[in-house]
Design goal:
Blueprint: H1 3-6, H2 10-33, H3 42-60, H4 63-87, H5 92-115, E1 120-122, E2 131-132, H6 141-147, E3 150-151, H7 152-170, H8 172-182, H9 184-189, H10 194-218, E4 223-225, H11 232-242, H12 247-269, H13 274-308
Antiparallel strand pairs: 1-4, 2-3
Helix pairs in contact: 2-6, 2-7, 2-10, 2-11, 2-12, 3-4, 3-5, 3-10, 3-11, 4-5, 4-10, 7-8, 11-12, 11-13, 12-13
Transmembrane segments: 12-31, 37-56, 63-86, 150-169, 199-221, 233-260, 272-294
GO molecular function, one term: transmembrane transporter activity
Protein name: Nucleoside ABC transporter membrane protein
């Protein structure tokens, strides 16, 4: 095995490419977690948006319209969860799980009903999200391989990390949201409408989840496959926990998953068992969640100890 061909400069962009869908899912989970809502339904939002994006792009020939409709589909899916949890006090984990199962069923029905096939659908009539090509970089193979030919959504993903960080930690709205997540009764006493804030973050989460799904089906690829999210929504939630609901650290967690995925694909090309390669992201997910929750439990224990003292 030639390690230089696995760990070369092209791995940098491969990692960013593989991590972008997970990054959008992580940001969707970050914004709701700041409002004390663990959005397990990110997987279902992504899957629904992936199908809608392909259907609209194929039907209209417009990637812009496909992206917008996918975001609307994400908002509607998130609002179902929001109403069930905020208004009717349903357990967010239960409703999130239900949304994930519903998304699997409705997209399976949709691909048969509207696209006339089963399993997967691809067509040259699917217009993908464009890629950014900078001619001046083509003269240098390293710059060309790392920074050129990025999908537009890969750039938007990094911008969204910075935007969300600014909103959460540099604005009054972000301060209010964090107070809602940590001390809801105190926030209510201060005149903050807690339920309104929670609806707002669920809508933003739906937008980000919709972008994640659209990127996966018409940015990352130009096709739809049943269950094509393949756990990326859950990986996004794990990245959120890894980063302590901080957009920057959640991005680092997403890059970790993207790195493992990229390495796995290259190892498979060298004859490593596909079963081992395919389970690598899930092993990392479980490990990241276990470490993150253990770290969170320790912080909580220290906080309680300090209060007692």
């Amino acid at each position: 095995m030639n390690f230089h061909s696995i760990f070369d400069y092209t791995l940098i962009y491969a990692t960013i490419r593989a991590s972008t869908p997970i990054l959008f899912a992580a940001l969707a989970a970050v914004i709701t977690e700041q409002g004390d809502i663990t959005n397990i339904g990110t997987e279902g939002i992504m899957l629904t948006a992936s199908f809608v994006a392909v259907l609209v792009s194929y039907s209209t020939g417009s990637w812009v319209l496909a992206l917008l409709i996918a975001m609307i589909a994400g908002i509607l899916t998130a609002l179902i969860m929001a109403v069930a949890h905020i208004k009717y006090k349903a357990d967010i984990t239960a409703i999130g799980t239900a949304i994930n199962i519903f998304a699997l069923a409705i997209t399976k029905f949709g691909i048969k009903q509207f696209l006339g096939t089963t399993g997967s659908f691809t067509s040259p009539e699917i217009i993908g999200i464009p890629r950014v090509n900078i001619p001046i970089l083509q003269g240098n193979k390293y710059l060309d391989g790392i920074f050129n030919n990025w999908s537009l959504m890969e750039i938007v993903g990094i911008i969204m990390v910075l935007v969300l960080s600014f909103l959460l930690y540099r604005t009054v709205w972000g301060l209010r949201l964090r107070s809602v997540g940590r001390f809801p009764m105190a926030a209510e006493t201060a005149g903050i409408n807690v339920n309104k804030m929670k609806y707002q973050v669920m809508i933003i989460s739906g937008i980000l989840g919709g972008m994640a799904g659209a990127h996966l089906s018409i940015g990352y690829s130009q096709m739809f496959i049943e269950n094509m999210t393949n756990g990326r929504g859950f990986m996004g939630v794990a990245a959120m926990f890894f980063g302590g609901a901080n957009p920057i650290f959640a991005w680092i967690g997403s890059l970790l998953f993207g790195f493992v995925d990229s390495i796995g694909g290259r190892l498979q090309a060298y004859g490593w068992p596909s079963q081992f390669v395919l389970m690598l992201p899930y092993i990392i997910t479980v490990a990241v969640l276990a470490i993150s929750l253990w770290r969170k439990a320790r912080k909580e224990q220290k906080r309680k100890s300090s209060l007692i003292l």
